Amino acid sequence: MDMLKLNKFVTGVVLAGVIALFSGFSADAVYSPEKEAKRGLQVQVAEKAPVTDLRSIIKGVEVATADTKKAPPAEAKIDIAAILATGDAAKGAKIAKKKCASCHTFDKGGKNKIGPNLFGTVGKAKAQNEGFKYSKAIKKFGGDWDNESLYKFLNKPKKFMKGTKMSFAGLKKDKDIANVISYLKQQSE
User: Fold this and answer.
1) DSSP for 135-159?
2) Which of 15, 45, 48, 133 has its CA 20 to 30 A from that of 172?
3) Is residue 2 over pLDDT 90?
4) What mean pLDDT is predicted for residues 141-154?
5) Shortest CA distance to 129 belongs to which of 147, 146, 110?
6) What is the pLDDT of residues 75-102, one digit of tens each?
7) What is the pLDDT averaged over residues 56-73?
8) Could you give the angle at the alpha carbon of 91 between the alpha carbons of 141 and 134, nearest 5°?
9) pLDDT for residue 56 is more than 60
10) Is residue 3 classed as helix, strand or coil in its secondary structure?
């Protein structure tokens, strides 16, 4: 290779690098981005006065022994009968079609989907629909679908029946639960 050609090539590469470097600096000078604020959630914590006396810390502390342990707070009693008295089957049908129909059918002899057919559920044993593969949790749970168990299950399925495969989060309003239970009662023989 000719020495002149090699010099031209090396000079071209160096010159291209210098131009790229210079254009980067000039672009930063012309379009200088604003400094970014600190990322993430900033939590402000009030500073506490330093504790100088250990007795002031210990004063308010109760020591739990086997005799003094407090029982967990009892669940608030819900008057399910009063809630269900307000149920409207027609409104319940609308809610069921909107929230439940993607996984369940409600007609007599209806097919199972992701979830079992719910016709005739009220008053019957849990996991009673033949031909549907229920989770171990619901088989183990046992009992009948009475008003109380339906209310608790429709409100928070995973809390009521730990281990259920049902992915539904639950109905939040008592009125909606009462309406759906009224509809389910209507869909029984």
Assistant:
1) -HHHHHH-SB--HHHHHHHHH-HHH
2) 133
3) no
4) 88
5) 110
6) 566 777 888 888 898 998 999 999 998 8
7) 53
8) 20
9) no
10) helix
Residue with tokens 């299950």: 153
Q: How many CB atoms lie within 10 A of CB 144?
A: 13
For residue 184, CA distances in Å to 64, 95, 101, 124, 158 come to 48, 11, 13, 12, 20
User: Mean pLDDT, the chain, as a whole number?
Assistant: 81
Question: CA–CA separation, 153 vs 40, rounded Å?
Answer: 38
CB 180 within 8 A of CB 154: yes
- Please, is 82 exposed, middle or buried when counting C-beta atoms within 10 Å of its C-beta (0-12, 13-18, 19+)? exposed
Distance CA 79, CA 89 (A): 19
CA distance 5 to 24: 29
DSSP 67-108: TTPPPPPPPPP--HHHHHTT--HHHHHHHHHHHTTTT---ST
Q: Amino acid identity, residue 28?
A: D
Q: What is the pLDDT of residues 159-178, one digit of tens each?
A: 888 888 888 888 889 899 89
Q: Which domains occur in the chain, in start order? A: 102-186 (1.10.760.10)
Amino acid occupying residue 6? L
